[in-house]
Amino acid sequence: MTPDDVVDLVADWLPLPDVAERLGCSVTVVRRYLEDGELLAARVGEREILMVPAAFLGDSGPLPALKGTFTVLADGGLGEVEILRWLFTPDPTLIAGGSPVEAIRAGHKTEVRRRAMEIAL
């Protein structure tokens, strides 16, 4: 089960069938995105349903900048829950303000990855 702080940080969680519908693909494709590290999911709620943060999705698939960012954070020793927490925790020092995931969505992938690499040191 995902800690409550992470569940609360993410404003909008989507179960895998909803992710598939939003992207116009099958749940099998969504599971492949998870296996390939293009998306992260967590078990959320009383029934521990596997869900993906809606902020991770673009119009046609996972945000391209996510996979490399996930890799940098994981290489720095963070687990999936810690990665989710870091990506969704507000950081007013970022150029775009807000959270790292908001900065990625605003086109500031390089700044977010630089911050992620600092964690890995």
Protein model, in words:
The mean pLDDT is 93. Strand 2 and strand 3 (49-53) form a beta hairpin. The chain has helices at residues 4-9, 16-23, 27-35, 64-75, 80-88, 100-105, 109-120; strands at 13-15, 42-44, 49-53. Strands 1-3-2 form a 3-stranded antiparallel β-sheet. It is mainly α. It is globular, with a radius of gyration of 14 Å. It has 7 helices and 3 strands; from the N terminus they run H-E-H-H-E-E-H-H-H-H. It has one domain (4-120).
Please summarize the sheet with the most strands.
3 strands, antiparallel
Order of strands in the sheet with most strands: 1-3-2
> What structural category do the secondary elements indicate?
mainly alpha
Helix content: 40-55%
**What coarse outline follows from CA principal-axis ratios?**
globular
In round numbers, the mean pLDDT is 93
Query: Terminal Cα separation, in Å?
Result: 28 Å
Strand portion, in percent?
5-15%
- pLDDT under 50 segments (min length 5)? none
What Rg is obtained from the alpha carbons, in whole angstroms? Answer: 14 Å
Oligomer: single chain
How many DSSP helices? 7
H/E element sequence: HEHHEEHHHH
Number of E-state strands = 3
Total discrete domains:
1
